[in-house]
Amino acid sequence: MMEHFDFFTTFLHHPLLQLLYTLLLIFSSIPVSLSEIKNTWIFDDYRSMILFESFGFGKNGHIEISVTNVSWSSQQNILFHPSSMGFFIANIPSFRSIWNETEYNKGFCVLSSRYAKLIFKFENLSADSTYKGSIEIDEPDEYNLVFGNCQPKFKVSMDVHTEMYNLKDGEKDYLPAGQTPLPKLYFLLFLIYAGFFLVWVFACNNQRPRVEKIHLIMGALLVFKCLKMICASEDKSYVRKTGTPHGWDVAFYVFGFFKGIMLFTVIILIGTGSSFLKPYLQEREKQVLMTVIPLQVLENIAYVVINETGPATRDWMTWNQLFLLIDISCCCVVFFPIIWSIRSLREASKRDGKAAKNLEKLTLFKQFYIVVIGYLYFTRILVSAVGAFLNYRLEWLITVLEEGASLVFYAFIFYNFQPMEKNPYFLINDEEENAAAQILEEDDGPFEL
Length: 449
Prior knowledge:
- Helices cover 55% and strands 16% of the residues.
- It has 12 helices and 9 strands.
- Strands 1, 3, 6, 8 and 9 form a 5-stranded antiparallel sheet that branches.
- β8 and β9 form a beta hairpin.
- The longest helix is centred in the last third of the chain and has 35 residues, at 355-389.
- The protein is elongated, with a radius of gyration of 27 Å.
């Protein structure tokens, strides 16, 4: 009974995993930039365009920008023109048009594009190579703040401080227009999951003799989900008022990490039939856990780097691709235990003669398999696809869709795999047994990923 949990405990103390935990804490300690008051350091960068951030502006939108310690250099003896470098803003359609212009027009200067709204050029720098100014957004929209370099043979270094906000009743609101409902939404989700946890505790208490370790892990999953939601609410609340999360982002990352670990662990343990088909893990199932847990650590490290550095970092897209690759890998790996359990049930039905009971379990595992596929497909692909077509003011709907799907998924697995009393007098007549055997025989085809 305790073999797979002894393995789990031993694995948590594996030297490699301890190293990955340490790396996670290091990345969680990176100076905060998951905010709308940002400090970015550009060093020897030769890119023709550097995207700093995107922000959804409403009425009375403002951008404040301060550039210091500006310097440029080139390994070639070329005359530098200060008007060839500067900052501009562009809404999303305009930014795409500018990108197309640079792709198809060799030597095109992005600062001269009719789609770019210029903020300033380096010829406006003061004597000590600094600039400080602000602009007001006339037309509410989602804008990108971009640095343009029309002399890419020159590398530029600078410190950039930006503040983006909307004025509401004379006060600064640092959240983009599409994220203003998020603090209340996350708090509502916290209350929902807190109630979910209390119901789970009540259900486990009523069936205490039948509570397995996996049910405790499921409870821990709800606890970390609750903590993640309240941290997300406080994070967004502080960013809205002050422009920075005041450390709530670190707590959000930490609890989000443990929530991810618990979620995939629960899916894998249920998929292996833990405490439902068998009380132990086979070697190949242990290998799945040994694969998924380090991948989850690496995925959370990539997530922290993506959010803490921002698109101005040269390797930002690489980290995004790494995050996507790891996430897809985790999603694929968790399917194997479910497939193995379905095959095991089919083989058992041919040996033990308990066709009706095996059919009941097989049906449940097939439903679980379909629900897991639907949940991962919806949250990883469909939500992103819908978000690409949403107006920037409706950005909060992405969170509603994603968290709504998560809530439905949690409700399914917690309801179907709750501790339940097994009726020792459960009897099946010969007619039901023969009908179940016939269904299993007809459903004996291959069941693959």
